[in-house]
Amino acid sequence: MTLEELPTGKRARITAVDWSLLAPEEGQRLRAMGLDEGARVAVAHRGVFAGRDPLSIMVGRMSVAIRRSHAQAMQVEAL
To answer: Which domain holds residue 36?
Structure first.
């Protein structure tokens, strides 16, 4: 499943990221925030408007906001 499909509050580990779906600078920013293979994450909140953007992701104790398109590029396995 992708990070975008992960239910709110459920913990998971990122197993793969398709960096080709993202612009190079976006990939660099996500890596700098710790969103790479092996990271333990959870979806904390989802946007409330039509696109459901952005997603608030917990990476360790840090909360980051990412776009759904970024979350769709990340494969996760539930913990």
So the answer is: 3-78
Which residue's structure tokens are 């960096």? 19
Which residue has better confidence, 52 or 67? 67
pTM for the predicted model, two decimal places: 0.89
Number of domains comprising the chain: 1
- DSSP tag of 22: S
Question: What Rg do the C-alpha atoms of the chain give, in angstroms?
Answer: 11
Task: Kindly report the CATH number assigned to the domain that includes residue 74.
Answer: 2.30.30.90
**What tokens appear for 1 in the block?**
């499943």
Bridge partners for 8 per DSSP: none
